[in-house]
């Protein structure tokens, strides 16, 4: 966008799951719908930001005015994010796989007579942490998400410190947020805890736009 409170600000957002292949036809993924990241992209572009959305595989339309880059793996998402730096704001909403298969089979794996199968996984890079700790191109504002089922505020505060980001949106998923609309979220930053009013992903997007405007104007 050209007009609006975020005009001239470049925002990079990750959204959705990643897909980590095991062989040409199989892989490891998760149930992230991408809806929260897409809602944030939609709101920020409406408020005038230049928004690049780096998306894992999801079944969602691209919000009007948003530049969307599709990726599958965490490593591809990491590379796509770094290719977008410098930016003013980074919001990591994607549910990035912590692990990928150490070896990806080049042919479809056949069923064997064994009753067990072992796969060795190796750690994926942490995109949020790498952006937060970038020596030359750290965005002015770096925001992450955290889903917790217990000790929401303790874990979110610890995550804020370990990842080096400026704020964490902590979601209480103990009541089952996946596929539901009841969603109790709190923003954690160096000033403390701010409960986010409202229940929906659009409410969280609205809150974040106001927060970003306050932090980078
Ligand atoms: O450590 P945890 O996965 O709970 O942290 C969640 C936050 O970190 C989210 O903002 C997510 O997008 C980000 N993340 C990431 N790269 C990873 C793992 C998580 O950017 N490999």
UniProtKB/TrEMBL annotation:
Binds 1 FMN per subunit. It catalyses: N-[(R)-4-phosphopantothenoyl]-L-cysteine + H(+) = (R)-4'-phosphopantetheine + CO2; (R)-4'-phosphopantothenate + L-cysteine + CTP = N-[(R)-4-phosphopantothenoyl]-L-cysteine + CMP + diphosphate + H(+). The keyword Ligase applies. Residues 6-213 form the DNA/pantothenate metabolism flavoprotein C-terminal domain. Its EC number is 4.1.1.36, 6.3.2.5. Residues 11-217 are annotated as: Phosphopantothenate--cysteine ligase. GO terms for cellular component: phosphopantothenoylcysteine decarboxylase complex. The keyword tRNA-binding does not apply. GO terms for molecular function: FMN binding; metal ion binding; phosphopantothenate--cysteine ligase activity; phosphopantothenoylcysteine decarboxylase activity. Pathway: Cofactor biosynthesis; coenzyme A biosynthesis; CoA from (R)-pantothenate: step 2/5; Cofactor biosynthesis; coenzyme A biosynthesis; CoA from (R)-pantothenate: step 3/5. It comes from the Bacteria. Keywords: Decarboxylase, Flavoprotein, FMN, Ligase, Lyase, Magnesium, Metal-binding, Multifunctional enzyme. GO terms for biological process: coenzyme A biosynthetic process; pantothenate catabolic process. Its cofactor is Mg(2+); FMN. CTP binds at residues 98, 108, 125-128, 145, 159, 163. Catalyzes two steps in the biosynthesis of coenzyme A. In the first step cysteine is conjugated to 4'-phosphopantothenate to form 4-phosphopantothenoylcysteine, in the latter compound is decarboxylated to form 4'-phosphopantotheine. Catalyzes two sequential steps in the biosynthesis of coenzyme A. In the first step cysteine is conjugated to 4'-phosphopantothenate to form 4-phosphopantothenoylcysteine. In the second step the latter compound is decarboxylated to form 4'-phosphopantotheine. In the N-terminal section; belongs to the HFCD (homo-oligomeric flavin containing Cys decarboxylase) superfamily. This is Coenzyme A biosynthesis bifunctional protein CoaBC. It comes from Asticcacaulis benevestitus DSM 16100 = ATCC BAA-896. The chain holds residues 179 to 395 of 395 of the full protein.
